[in-house]
């Protein structure tokens, strides 16, 4: 995997690179991870990239142009259908099983995920466009169509923003709804506080293998329906680092320690595919922007699904984590449901 990615980025030097690195890229670490028929890594160099600004001006390889106002299709975004009871029950069982591994050693955590699926189609291009209304500064919207698979979403977790010399990682961990607040801060319980702290500690340890890294103070990222804990990490890759090794280094595992990948492989019914991987781009200038691929709706052959997951820690319970995935699913905005 590393050799192939290095060859690709070397050949694409000085050009736009776009695409995703899916969760299955961890197969080299854990060969029991389920992989599907779709590519686990899909990166490409577009022939032309169109850059559109808020004022309607745009630039491309052919020069500058001004896009006309209006003409945009009106769409109404709403929540997907409720998660089926049997899906919630299976997820509770997964959490209960995961707690057995988590409880063996203090500080362990494991992110487990399931698929919330339904019949019918979704307008995924408009779904991507609906995400552009988000204004908190770290979300990135995306759309992909390849080999009959479509997916679109707006990820609130920008993991790489900068360059190979230095980038910022906006790490989210711990999710709640908008409940009672004290002094403008969400009313977090000890479970969420410890979940966020353990996530940051795990990243500091992982990133230190390839970079100098430091963490800022914990913050809260307030979205329309959710509140996430967020810590900004300043990451300075070691001299001589390349894009391939850095991106594989920040690719989320969902397991701490990483040996927990074998537990994910044992527990989860479906391959994650692009979900929980990285989606983003490299500009010709060398600027990197890669988000964790979350809050994403997939569809193929008249079926749509939304992967949802939650981090299991020692203070988790099946009911608490089932309530969290229901909250996350309701917060996703999709258009053109049928």
Verbal overview:
- The chain is an alpha+beta fold.
- It is 24% helix and 34% strand.
- The protein has seven helices and 22 strands.
- The strands form five sheets. Strands 1, 2, 10, 11, 14, 15, 16, 18 and 19 form a nine-stranded antiparallel beta sheet that branches.
- Strand 3 and strand 4 form a beta hairpin.
- Helix 1 (2-11) packs across helix 5 (243-250) and helix 2 (85-102) packs across helix 7 (318-331).
- The mean pLDDT is 91.
Features:
single chain; 338 residues; alpha+beta; 9-stranded antiparallel beta sheet
Question: How is the topology of this model organized?
Answer:
Blueprint (H helix, E strand, L loop, with lengths): L1 H10 L5 E5 L19 E4 L6 E2 L4 E4 L2 E4 L10 E2 L6 H18 L6 E11 L4 H7 L9 E7 L2 E7 L2 E5 L4 E11 L3 E2 L2 E2 L3 H18 L3 E5 L3 E4 L3 E12 L5 H8 L4 E2 L4 H7 L10 E5 L5 E5 L3 E5 L2 E10 L5 H14 L2 E2 L3
Antiparallel strand pairs: 1-2, 1-18, 3-4, 4-5, 6-22, 7-17, 7-21, 8-9, 9-20, 10-11, 10-19, 11-16, 12-13, 14-16, 15-16, 18-19, 20-21
Helix pairs in contact: 1-5, 2-7
Form type: globular
Total number of beta strands: 22
What sequence of helices (H) and strands (E) makes up the elements?
Answer: HEEEEEEHEHEEEEEEHEEEHEHEEEEHE
Strand % is 25-35%
The biggest beta sheet is recorded as: 9 strands, antiparallel
Poorly predicted runs: none
Structural class: alpha+beta
Cα gyration radius (Å)? 20 Å
């Amino acid at each position: 995997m590393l050799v192939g990615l290095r060859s690709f980025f070397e050949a694409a030097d000085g050009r736009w690179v776009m695409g995703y690195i899916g969760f299955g890229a961890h197969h080299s670490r854990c060969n029991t991870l389920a992989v599907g028929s779709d590519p686990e890594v899909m990166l490409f160099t577009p022939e032309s990239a169109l850059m559109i600004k808020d004022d309607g001006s745009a630039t491309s390889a052919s020069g500058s142009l001004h896009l006309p106002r209006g003409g945009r299709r009106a769409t109404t975004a709403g929540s997907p259908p409720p998660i089926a009871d049997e899906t919630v029950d299976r997820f509770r069982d997964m959490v209960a099983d995961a707690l057995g591994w988590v409880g063996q050693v203090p500080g362990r955590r494991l992110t487990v995920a399931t698929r919330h699926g339904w019949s019918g189609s979704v307008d995924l291009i408009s779904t991507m466009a609906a995400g552009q209304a988000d204004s908190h500064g770290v979300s990135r919207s995306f759309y992909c169509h390849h080999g009959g698979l479509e997916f679109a979403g707006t990820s609130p977790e920008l993991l790489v923003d900068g360059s190979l010399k230095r980038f910022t990682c906006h790490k989210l961990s711990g999710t709640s709804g908008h409940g009672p607040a004290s002094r403008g801060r969400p009313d977090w319980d000890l479970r969420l506080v410890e979940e966020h702290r353990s996530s940051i500690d795990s990243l500091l340890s992982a990133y230190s293998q390839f970079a100098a890294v430091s963490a800022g103070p914990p913050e809260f990222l307030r979205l329309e329906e959710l509140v996430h804990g967020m810590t900004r990490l300043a990451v300075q890759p070691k001299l001589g680092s390349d894009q391939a090794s850095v991106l594989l280094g920040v690719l989320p595992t969902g397991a701490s320690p990483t040996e927990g990948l074998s537990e994910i492989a044992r527990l989860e019914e479906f391959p994650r595919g692009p979900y929980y991987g990285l989606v983003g781009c490299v500009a010709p200038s060398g600027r990197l922007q890669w988000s964790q691929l979350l809050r994403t709706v997939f569809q193929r052959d008249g079926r749509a699904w939304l992967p949802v997951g939650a981090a299991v820690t020692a203070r988790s319970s099946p009911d608490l984590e089932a309530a969290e995935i229901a909250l996350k699913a309701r917060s996703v905005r999709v258009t053109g449901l049928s």
